[in-house]
């Protein structure tokens, strides 16, 4: 298949007929080409249309309009050929929870027509690779959240897919289990040279592990690039200053410095901080702008009490694009915002 895209979608759209005849446009218009071997994160707030897009690409849901090929096969005309080549790990795994994990893996192998010997070989290989030996004889319903997600991944990998779709693989896990799961995901990827396409609303995961980040909002892809490039082109470095007295003339000087740096949104955010003023602005090349800015403010008679320079995050990217914070949006329906995690495995 060479460099042909492993996923190629054009104008995918899904409208659900809501109750009382009111339609819900879950996915408005999604187009993409995904390279074989890549790791792509589909990042967006709750309800952005991530799962619906994934369910269309995995042939679980028929698009209202639009087309896609996955592993070279058309999702509408040849869903069986698509399914035979992909793995899909949904948000809630519905597999038989009262079976022992090892038996569940073996039945999965049988379901994919692997044959007894191959099924057993694959089951043992995945139990070992995903660190599940200790729990392999337990019923899956008794597993912890992290073990359950690793078991889900083992189930998804039984058919040896070239392309693995994961829908929010780490949601609901504590930071340590998330790091551990990522470790396994990256190891599996390396071992099997798989293409990974996953949805997440954890900004740090997309930032750390994905080579390509597609930011999704209201059923559309609103940005698509590597995390460093998204941050450099769409967010800029954040400068936070505390100056004595009122905000002027400091705010004007800060705005001009931001404009000169080519910042997309040079208007500073100004708040009173007791007797002092706090000024926040996004600039380009913050490390060059900040010292110059402090000198200019000093010359204009504004004393700078504190000055901080922060690298942008993907949340700043989302904020620039939509005027909303992804962190806050997810907090309302999700567990506490993710702490940064680090997986032992390297890319
Ligand atoms: N079967 C359905 N019937 C009606 N509306 C639906 C259905 N499935 C999803 N939706 C709606 O479509 C929109 C997109 O949902 P989707 O689950 O794809 O979002 P998501 O980005 O995966 O969100 P989350 O991060 O919460 O999983 C939401 O408004 C959702 O309520």
Automatic annotation (TrEMBL):
Per UniProt, residues of the ABC transporter domain are 7-243
Q: What keywords tag this UniProt record?
A: ATP-binding, Nucleotide-binding
Annotated spans, Disordered? 325-347
Report if keyword Nucleotide-binding is assigned: yes
Q: Recorded GO terms, molecular function?
A: ATP binding
Q: Which domain of life is it from?
A: Bacteria
Record has Nucleotide-binding as a keyword: yes
List, alphabetically, the InterPro entries matched: AAA+_ATPase, ABC_transporter-like_ATP-bd, ABC_transporter-like_CS, P-loop_NTPase
Spell out the PANTHER family in the cross-references: ABC TRANSPORTER, LINEARMYCIN RESISTANCE ATP-BINDING PROTEIN LNRL
Could you tell me what this protein is called? Answer: ATP-binding cassette domain-containing protein
